[in-house]
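Q: Could you fold this chain for me?
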Amino acid sequence: MKQDIYKGICNGKATAHKAFAVLVDPDKLDEISLLNTIALAVEAKVDYFFVGGSLVVTDTLDKVVSAIKEKCNIPVILFPGSPDQITPKADALLYLSLISGRNPELLIGQHVISAPFVRQSGLEIMPVGYMLVDGGTPTTVSYISNTNPIPANKNDIASCTAMAGEMLGLKLIYMDAGSGAQKAIPTAMITQVAKYISIPLIVGGGITTADKAKENCLAGADVIVVGNAVEKDPNLIKEIAAAIHSLNK
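A: Sure. Below is the predicted structure, expressed as structure tokens.
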């Protein structure tokens, strides 16, 4: 099984090389907006595209992934909200286990259903411990997942959850305040989680400025993911990419 993208993320962590992923929700971008986003991402030397959402109610997933692959060489990583959000046209799949919740369907149930297709897809599979953190408002993902996020002031719960995920064999930890979060994950929580795990840490949700993205990197995030903010202002892609990449030597 291919592991090229995962190896790249691990190498980035080992060398303190911070990365930026633009999250594309297939339901939210029309063709012109998507092409503009791709062009800006190429110019800014964005590291990854994440594609997916809590709800993908249109049939555009394949089209979005194909458009990105046709226009650039930036790796496309699926960030699925359900087993239906999988296409072999992408490069890799975040195989998410919602370890912050207690919904068995999202810990293992949907994985059992999707396993045969995932195995046959040819995608690079990256097992991820997905952790929802309270971003100040109910989000689509908390509603759909029927789980409560980790309180933003409970650093100990977050760090123990991440440690458990790593010891269970998950290869990445993804801390997410959710799409449309009012508040980003506190830097103190990111710092504590990063201190207690050795696998790469992805952070997203509520990041609306280049300064916040840089702050989260300095706190211990290895990959920063931004979606809503760049949907509203695509030019933020260049600002955030510059801020994150300024930390790399």
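A (continued): The chain has a mean pLDDT of 94.
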